[in-house]
Design a protein that fits this description.
By secondary structure, the protein is α/β, with parallel strands linked by helices. The protein has helices spanning about 15-25, 45-55, 80-85, 105-115, 130-135, 165-170, 170-180, 190-195, 200-210, 210-230, 240-250, 295-310; strands at about 5-10, 30-35, 65, 120-125, 145-150, 185-190, 195-200, 235-240, 255-260, 260-265, 275, 290-295. α2 (about 45-55) links the parallel β2 and β3 (about 65). The structure holds beta-D-ribofuranose (BDR) and calcium ion.
Length: about 325
């Protein structure tokens, strides 16, 4: 089976952490690099958190780079109210057993794209600052991108404001650049991630998988769930970013409709809104496939199977 070449851009973050573990455990992909950006917390934390998770997973050989520490415009927006002070509260994670590479993340993204002999699936589960900066540096390199799957935006709802989803709200100008770049973009937004609720029973299933990874993930989700219990009372927690990675590695878990999508950057109440032309009223050509449905059973199977693969066998030398 041909492996998917994967680039991950993230801001771990609880749901990023589960997404990263799932990708690290998946036998059908080769991770070219993990890049991090300011988002849920400062970039120093997201970079350390990615390496903590990879240390926990026993996968310390994949390069990790830190990128943008602030959005292209405006002040940084973080989500410590959701993810805690470090961005990954709730579990005793190991300290990173390896250093980040010295490259600036957008440069590493470009280099990995240029260096890949295979088409690349790029998954971004964070504000799109690194991706926009990489595009501004070298649009040509993105010809290598077979699919760009982002967790971000929504056709119909918001979570930071009534109008806007966090990853787009945190850097609307970057999201506008990425959506305007003519890429094969798959937008996995709140419309579907808010359907993909991991219940208390699901969290117990993860704990029951045993081992350090099962215990850590259950601890992380117990913490993460606190926010959703306080604000939404859904009886569980959505794993936004894991939906994007699941779709990247098992295409078809999410269903999409092509739409013209624009990002509102100025609105008094709507900055960061992804304005999705569901019914084609503008007559503009579609620039994204927008998620409209998700197979929740398949998503949960993907996550449980991935976490059940730990501890991973040693990678071939
Ligand atoms: C997104 O915002 C972040 O807090 C999560 O990690 C996810 O990427 C959901 O709106
Ligand atoms: Ca994220």
């Amino acid at each position: 089976m041909k492996k998917i070449s994967l680039l991950l851009d993230m801001d771990p973050g609880h749901d990023d952490a589960v997404a990263l573990l799932a990708a690290l455990a998946h036998p059908g992909c080769r991770i070219l690099a993990v890049t991090t950006v300011a988002g849920n917390t400062a970039v120093e934390n997201t970079c350390a958190n990615a390496r903590r998770i990879m240390t926990l997973a026993g996968r310390t050989g994949v390069p990790v780079a830190a990128g943008a520490s602030r959005p292209l415009s405006g002040r940084p927006v973080t989500a410590e109210n959701v993810h805690g002070r470090t961005g990954l509260e709730g579990a005793n994670l190991p300290e990173p057993a390896f250093a980040a590479v010295p490259d600036f993340a957008p440069e590493l993204i470009v280099r990995r794209l240029r260096g890949s002999s295979q088409p690349v699936t790029l998954v971004a589960t964070a504000p799109l600052t690194n991706i926009a900066l990489a595009l501004l540096r070298d649009r040509e390199a993105f010809h290598r991108v077979e699919r760009l799957v982002i967790m971000g935006g929504a056709a119909g709802e918001g979570n930071v404001t009534p109008a806007a989803e966090f990853n787009v709200y945190a850097d609307p100008e970057a999201a506008g650049i990425v959506l305007g770049a003519g890429l094969p973009l798959f937008m996995v937004g709140l419309d579907v991630t808010h359907q993909a609720i991991m219940t208390g029973k699901d969290i117990e299933t993860m704990r029951g998988l045993g081992g350090d990874v099962g215990a850590a993930v259950a601890g992380l989700l117990d913490f993460y769930r606190g926010h959703y219990d306080r604000v939404y009372a859904w009886g569980g927690v959505p794993l936004h970013d894991a939906c994007a990675v699941a779709e990247a590695l098992c295409p078809g878990i999410v269903t999409f409709s092509p739409m013209a999508v624009e990002v509102e950057t100025r609105g008094e109440f709507t900055r960061g809104r992804t304005v999705c032309d569901r019914w084609g009223v503008t007559g503009k050509p579609a620039n994204a496939a927008v998620a409209t449905g998700i197979r929740i059973g398949a998503l949960k199977k993907f996550i449980f199977e991935a976490l059940g693969r730990f501890p991973l066998p040693s990678p071939p030398r």
